[in-house]
Amino acid sequence: MTLQTVTLHLPEDLYQRLQRAAKLTYRSVDEVVVTTINATLVAPPNLPSELADELAAMRLSSDDALWAAAQPSLSPAEAHRLKQINHTAGERPLSHSEAVEQETLLKAYHHSILRRAQALAILAQRGHTVSPENLAPASSL
Asked: In percent, how much of the chain has pLDDT > 70?
């Protein structure tokens, strides 16, 4: 693993907390910082790297950006089309183009759900009340 040297300007109280954590765990401040960054930027395994990076970076987002990410990202037209295709799939085998469209829409839907869940989890960790009343409903597929 190649190491990069980075200079950080930290508030004194934050640096003191890092020093205390390092002392308590018998590690260097550098190791504590690296461990903390790795834990903060963790994303679920087996995701496309672009989505994994997006989910990991959400921890650094503002609360407003997280509330926006907590809204459904599938357009009403896409949600309606996915519902239609799913209904059709229950009645007959899908054509190749319908199956491809279903797969594409399902992937977008699943990614939307993951984004929403990550955003809501972070907001809850930050002390916000996360309840159905302050969320837009996800389409029922």
From this structure: 89
Task: Supply the DSSP symbol for 134.
Answer: G
At 140 the pLDDT is 56
Q: How far is CA 123 from CA 17, 22, 25, 31, 60, in A?
A: 24, 28, 29, 27, 11
In this prediction, residues 70-85 reach a mean pLDDT of 93
**Number of folded domains that form the chain:** 2
Rounded to whole angstroms, how far apart are CA atoms 108 and 92? 23
CB atoms within 10 A of CB 61: 17
99 assigned to some structural domain = yes
- Residue 40: what residue type? T
Q: Among 79, 86, 91, which Cα is nearest to 140's?
A: 79
